Amino acid sequence: MPQISADIILPEDFFCVNLSIISSFQFSHRSHNLNAYQRQNFFITRSLRGHSLVQILIYANLAMFTLMVLHGTVLGYGMTLFLNPPIELLANWGGQFWPWALNGELWRCISYAYMHGGIIHLGFNMVVLYQIGPLIESEVGWQRFFVIYTITAIFATLAGLIIHPRVVVVGASGALFGIFGFAVSYYHRVGGSIGIQRRNFLFQWIVIALVFGFVIGADNAAHIGGLVSGAAFGWLIPTTIRSQRKTDSFFNGLAWLLIATTVLSLLLVIITLALRVF
């Protein structure tokens, strides 16, 4: 039986970031930026039919966890499903296990980021996504946000391949660290008092999370893989609307390609599981 590793397990109060701080980040304008008041309205017009991408990602994570719990209930695992799902269930429901991924199940490089090792693990990651995600989505648009989220999740699991290739890994925090890494380097380039304030706030979060991850034995390989790849995106994506418009078509096409790949990956989890059962 493969060994399991939840990608990040942190105490509840650690994730209860003051919502007023996040709100002030979202609605205050940047100094020295002619587009400061236009940015939010511009990206609202590029939402997904009234739902933010962050909301859709949360729905997807909740749906996959619910399906796993329902299946586990049918199998007779009982209440332990909610707090500590069995390793075989997590592996069968798309957890990243590189021996299986390299044997033709490459969709695990994406599906693992939508599975979680219990309701607490899921709740922690979704709270972080809910609190921080809208800020970044409003800055760069849902297309770029999804590209960053998905590609950094892939780089996170590739880091795991190097460090612990025979450990089952589940959870969204590799992608979340990707978003944080992006934000730190992006806001560093933005500059100004607000940009530096956001950079410093998020950098402090990253340091604390990494230190705590080492203390509890979390999957810091994935965290660092996501963080570094996210930071690279932060140096590549322009910080002004005018410059971002020039690459809109590219990121729109790439985002929809990754959406199709993600949907297919999650469907393949269910199809493969059904084939194993029947």
Automatic annotation (TrEMBL):
Occurrences of domain Peptidase S54 rhomboid (ranges): 104-237
* PANTHER family in the record: PRESENILIN-ASSOCIATED RHOMBOID-LIKE PROTEIN, MITOCHONDRIAL (PTHR43731:SF14), RHOMBOID PROTEASE (PTHR43731)
A single GO BP term for this record reads:
proteolysis
Write down a Pfam family by its short name. Rhomboid
Residues in a coiled coil are: none
Q: Name one GO cellular component term.
A: membrane
Supply the alphabetized keyword list: Hydrolase, Membrane, Protease, Transmembrane, Transmembrane helix
Q: Matching SUPFAM superfamilies, A to Z?
A: Rhomboid-like
Question: Mind telling me which residue stretches traverse the membrane in this protein?
Answer: 56-79, 112-133, 145-163, 169-188, 200-218, 224-241, 253-275
Please give the family membership noted in the entry: Belongs to the peptidase S54 family.
The record's subcellular locations are: Membrane
| Gene Ontology MF term list | serine-type endopeptidase activity
- Kindly give the InterPro entries that the UniProt entry links to this protein: Peptidase_S54_rhomboid_dom, Rhomboid-like_sf, Rhomboid_protease_S54
Instruction: Please give the name of this protein.
Output: Membrane associated serine protease, rhomboid family
Tell me the membrane topology, using the record's own terms.
Answer: Multi-pass membrane protein
